Amino acid sequence: MKSTTITLEHGAGGEVMQALIGEIILKNFNSKSTGSVGLESLDDGSTVKLENFDSNSELVLTTDSHVIIPAFFPETNIGRLAVAGTINDLTMMGAKPLALTCAVIVPEGFPMDDFETIIKTMASTAAEADVPIITGDTKTVEKAALDSIILNTAGLGITAAEKPVRDSGLSRGDKILVTGTIGDHGISLMAHREGFDFDTDLVSDSAPLWKLIEPLLELKTPEGAAVITAMKDPTRGGLANALNEMAEKSEAGIILEEEDIPFKPAVSAACEMLGLDPLEVANEGKAVIGVKAGFEEKVLEILKKHPYGKDAAVIGEVSAENKGEVVLRNRFGGMRYVDVPAGDPIPRVC
Amino acid sequence: MESSVLRRPYRKTGTLIKMAPENPQSKQGIPEIEKKLLERIEASARPLRIMHVCGTHERTIAKYGLRSVLPEEIEVISGPGCPVCVTPEADIDIAIALAKSGASVVTFGDMMRVPGSAGSLLDAKAEGTDVRMVYSIDDAVTLAEKKPEQEVVFFGIGFETTVPANAATLLRGVPENFSLLVSQKRTPPAIGLLSRDTEVDAFIAPGHVATIIGTKPFEPLAEQGFPVVVSGFEAYDVLLGISLLLAQIEKGEARVDNGYPRVVKSEGNLIALKMMEEVFETADSEWRGIGNIDSSGLVLKKELEEQDAAKRHEDLYAAALGEIRKKAEGRDKKHCICAAILTGKAKPSQCPNFGKDCTPKNPAGPCMVSQEGMCYNWFKYARIGGSRRA
């Protein structure tokens, strides 16, 4: 009989663990191989076949561990976050995601149904970007050691013939684009955690961005240069953190136009109420993109065709002044620096 | 004059104003109130030092870069307006001592990072004590209800804006295991102090506090010859406030204008005031960086000593106080210039620690701790506007 909660035996390497892998993991991961040895072989590792790639291509490898409390939040769960996060890390490098790994650390007592839901979510998120999950690992720990599930996903990707897209690629005149509304993930999670009801269906924006970004990577200027000059996903620390890193690494200044930055009204309202700066709030399904001047409309047009890019907007440009700094200009000309947040946003007293 | 400015078509009562339009099309629909107000201010600009006494005003000014768009002659400085900043180290030490004794200490988020004489509540939390961050006193009461065997102490800080909520909660009745550690302040005595020893020409009075106490408590300032305006917290509220002050000065008048009539009534919130009176009485109070100000604090009335953390945990309180006095004797004074900054006599950039040994990440003085703190806001937002005049 299938047990209703995870026990230590589920990670002990024996029959119980084999059953868990068979009945929950293998059953739900639809796409699990991209070479001659895949997840279903349950071998010591899996293989990735490389075909039709330019000899100048480079492999990109990334890894990310995810721990979030609660594991379930509006509309989705940690499984989507873990898969989308790693796909997005590869995507932001301009790399086509080839394969993912999935390592799970789960405490005893974790509900089996929740576990299966998370695995199913991982599968459906990976499927959105056509990426197989080809190998994995399951460990269980005592309840006292951990109070929620931890997921680690590593991702392997490959760049096209040209160089990978870097954070540091901005140069003077480039336009700065964002692929959609800012702060949805962080605010929806905070509202959910604290039981706030903003009378709105604000949900996490967690999403794999590969299909959205893929067509942009082929764009070239008449001189043959890549139209996308830099790219980053504004996760923890929000837009403020991502843009500051890009400005600093690119040794350039960024000027943002406040009224062009897209926000959902609920996010603005919640930030006003809680005393948070929406620019510092986390996103899990957005990209900040540097685009060669003159191509921003073309890029916007492509982005807006995809559901994850329908609210895309040009929010600023790269300047020669204020090297390494991000400056925000509002609709009546007031200017301020956008700094790197000190830590997690903390709500204020009044 | 006011009505045309105050009737904003895009702001519905009870909804929060959007930071940015929902979509680019609505951009043209927004009247450029700020630009009009700025033009009006430009037209009657003259050398002027205006002090506001509210952290949220500082935040508005910094967030919208108002110092970068105001005429050079008009200087807006920040008085003591951050409740977190003025909470004395001793009160934080006592809260930490309570947490270490096993009580759950519950408070607002921005109190967590403020250093006492030996670390902050956040440090105490890291050491394993039960310190929690909440959004309102109700959350603390709920915690006490859920854990009847656990002592729960709500560390109540803030000005008249947060006092009524605490009073209402106590009047409604709280579980036996719940008590309030009171570190709350009254604004008028501090403003009185500022007007006695100041370089300031006019005052922007805090809209939040005035919502509760009304505009009358600010009248003594006007009687001393200072033009005063009660302002709200959007960029246009502050700009309107400045323009109203200029209008008073032009005519040689000094009175209290209400620049926030959509919220503030001259008599204040009578229900809230009554509740405050029922629960609290005034007492002298220590302001961090400033010192003692007569009748500027609040204590719970004797009938409520069961809910008074200072009385309920009297031994612990006395021991913590003794410890604090002992420490204070042997300690070198820190060289922050908080007192001068809080009273508007110095700017953050004049403090030797500002931006060096004192940053939002590692705050030495209280003004750097809170998002309402003058130094925090200067560090974070105001360098463009600030550097021009520093």
Task: Describe this entry's structure for a reader.
The complex is a heterodimer of chains A (350) and B (390). Chain A is α+β, with helices and mostly antiparallel strands and 350 residues long. Chain A folds into 2 domains: 8-159, 60s Ribosomal Protein L30, Chain: A (2-Layer Sandwich); 175-337, PurM-like C-terminal domain (Phosphoribosyl-aminoimidazole Synthetase, Chain A, domain 2, Alpha-Beta Complex). Chain A is built from 8 helices and 13 strands. In chain A, helix 2 runs parallel beside helix 3. With 390 residues, chain B is α/β, with parallel strands linked by helices. Chain B has 18 helices and 11 strands. Chain B has a 5-stranded parallel beta sheet. In chain B, helix 2 (33-43) runs parallel beside helix 12 and helix 5 crosses helix 15. Chains A and B meet through helix 7, strand 12 and strand 13 of A and helix 2, helix 3, helix 4 and helix 18 of B.
Order of helices and strands of chain B: HHEHHEHEHEHEHEHEHHEHEHEEHHHHH
Helix content of chain A: 25-40%
What is the strand content of chain A? 15-25%
The CATH superfamily of one domain in chain B is known as HypD, alpha/beta domain 2
The class by helix and strand makeup of chain B works out as alpha/beta
Low-pLDDT residue intervals, each spanning 5 or more residues of chain A:
none
Specify Rg of chain B, calculated over alpha carbons.
21 Å
CATH class of one domain in chain B: Alpha Beta
Number of strands of chain B: 11
The number of distinct helices of chain A, counting runs of at least 4 residues, comes to: 8
Cα radius of gyration of chain A in angstroms: 21 Å
Quickly give the CATH architecture of one domain in chain B.
3-Layer(aba) Sandwich
Report the sheet with the most strands of chain B, covering strand number, pairing sense and barrel closure: 5 strands, parallel
Topology-level CATH name of one domain in chain B: Rossmann fold
Low-confidence stretches of chain B: 1-30, 385-390
Write down the oligomeric state.
Answer: heterodimer
Mean of residue pLDDT values of chain A: 91
Quickly count the domains of chain A.
2
**What is the CA–CA distance across the termini of chain B?**
35 Å
CATH homology group of the largest domain in chain A: PurM-like C-terminal domain
